Amino acid sequence: MDSEQLQYCQTALTALKQELELEIADLELSARPVQLDQQAVGRVSRGDALQQQNMALANLEQCRIRMHEVLHAESKFGVTEYGYCEACDEVINLPRMLARPDSRYCLGCQSVVEEAD
């Protein structure tokens, strides 16, 4: 990867990090405990609120996992390991890095990792 492509990936990674930070903050508000005051909220509305809270908690967990991946990718810039597959040590192809700048694995190794899970 040349320096221009590397800079583009780093910019994309920074933008993704900022987007995730905003999404996490929003989801943390949505995932707050639901007020179960039956006088204020009907039974169906409470059920909906609990369902929305559970969905927000699940989304929050996924965002936090993705943020961890972004921070991990950022740490690789300092040691010039960014863009290399953590499994086979080969260069991850540029289209993949542009589409998902926090990628740890090349497509082949990613498939193996996903099959193992």
SS-derived structural category? mainly alpha
Rg from alpha-carbon coordinates: 19 Å
Strand content: under 5%
Mean pLDDT: 88
What is the N-to-C order of secondary-structure elements (H for helix, E for strand)? HHHH
Distance between the termini: 30 Å
Global outline: elongated
Low-confidence stretches at least 5 residues in length (pLDDT < 50)? none
Number of helix segments?
4
Biggest sheet, in brief? none
Provide the helix percentage: 55-70%
Number of strands: 0
Describe the structure.
Helix content is 68%, strand content 0%. The protein has helices at residues 3-30, 43-77, 94-99, 107-116. The radius of gyration is 19 Å and the shape is elongated. 11% of the residues are buried.
Per-chain topology:
Elements: H1 3-30, H2 43-77, H3 94-99, H4 107-116
Helix pairs in contact: 1-2
Compose a concise summary of this entry:
This protein is mostly helical and 117 residues long.
What descriptors fit this protein?
117 residues; mainly alpha; 4 helices
